[in-house]
Amino acid sequence: MPDIHLSPIGVIHSPFREKFGIPRQAGLIPAAKGHVALIGPWNQPDALRGIEDFSHLWLLWLARHHREGNWKTTVRPPRLGGNVRVGVFASRSIFRPNAIGQSLVRLEKVIAAPGDCRLEVSGLDVLDGTPLLDIKPFLPWADAPADARGGFAAQPPKRRLAIAYTPEAEAAASSLPAGERDLLEAAIACDPRPAYHDDRRPYRLRISDYEAEFMVENHVAKVIRVAPTQSPK
C-alpha cells in the first residue's frame, strides 16, 4: 500500500507548554482555553461557514513528540494504575503507529476573516503548538450512542486532589490573570503525576507564562511556589 502524506491545516494553541500537567482527556478541565488557527491555503472564511451552529468540535491532531517506530503493541493506561497492559488499539495512547490524537472541545467563538481564521475553544488536552490535521463537528445522535460501553474507562476519573497553598504561593497565585488560577488548580486537582510517583518530591508544571510546584500528602496537593516562567538563557 502506498504511503499517505498529510499536511497540517492549522495549529492548536493551548495553555500547556509542557506535557506534564496536560489533562488525560479533553473536557476534563473546561478552564483549559485556547484557539485553533488555520493556515494557508485553508484559512479562508468560507471553510468555516456554518461551524458556529455546532456547540462541540472534534479536533484531529498529530503529536509533536512522535518519532517513527516509537510504538508498541501494548500500553499501560494510567486509569489502570500503570501496571496493567492493554492493546494499543484498545487505548487512546499517543504512542501508536500513526500518532494521531482526537479531542472533543467546546466551541466558544468563531473568528473568520480573510487570512485570519480562528476558533476559540475550551476543554483542551493538547500541547501548545500541536499541528492540526482536521476539524469535524460533533453530532450527539451519531457520536454518543446510548448503548455505548467504555471498557476500562467507562466512568470519568473520580480521584481529585484537594488544593492548599503555602502563604508565599497563595500571594503569588492571587496575582495571576483572571481564570489562570482556576486553570492551575484544576490541572493539579486532576493529579498529573505518573502512576509510579514519589510523594516526597515536588512536581512542577508549566501553564501559560508561569510555573507552579506542588507536593502531595494524604490526597492534598500543597502548592509551594508560583512564579513567572524563566526564559532560557
Topology:
Layout: E1 10-13, E2 33-38, E3 56-62, E4 74-75, E5 86-87, E6 100-113, E7 116-122, E8 130-137, H1 140-143, E9 162-165, H2 167-174, H3 180-189, E10 203-207, E11 210-217, E12 220-228
Parallel strand pairs: 9-12
Antiparallel strand pairs: 1-2, 1-8, 2-7, 3-6, 3-8, 4-5, 6-7, 10-11, 11-12
Describe this structure in words.
The chain has 233 residues and is mainly β. The protein folds into 2 domains: 10-143, YaeB-like (Elongation Factor Tu (Ef-tu), domain 3), CATH 2.40.30; 162-228, RelE-like (YaeB-like fold, 2-Layer Sandwich), CATH 3.30.2310.20. It is 9% helix and 33% strand. The protein has a 6-stranded antiparallel beta barrel.
In summary, what is this structure?
The chain is mainly β and 233 residues long. Helices cover 9% and strands 33% of the residues. It has 3 helices and 12 strands.
Notable traits:
233 residues, mainly beta, Elongation Factor Tu (Ef-tu), domain 3, YaeB-like fold, 2 domains, six-stranded antiparallel β-barrel, four-stranded mixed sheet, 3 helices, 12 strands, globular
Helix content: under 10%
Low-pLDDT windows of residues: none
> What's the architecture of the largest domain, going by CATH?
Beta Barrel
Please describe the biggest sheet, giving its number of strands, its sense, and whether it closes into a barrel.
6 strands, antiparallel, barrel
- Class inferred from helices and paired strands: mainly beta
Beta-strand portion reads 25-35%
Q: Write down the CATH topology of the largest domain.
A: Elongation Factor Tu (Ef-tu), domain 3
Extended strand count: 12
CATH class of the largest domain: Mainly Beta
What's the number of domains?
A: 2
Mean pLDDT: 91
Order of helices and strands: EEEEEEEEHEHHEEE
Total of helices: 3
Name the shape in a single word: globular
CATH superfamily of the largest domain: YaeB-like
> N- to C-terminal separation?
47 Å
Spatial order of the strands forming the largest sheet: 1-2-7-6-3-8
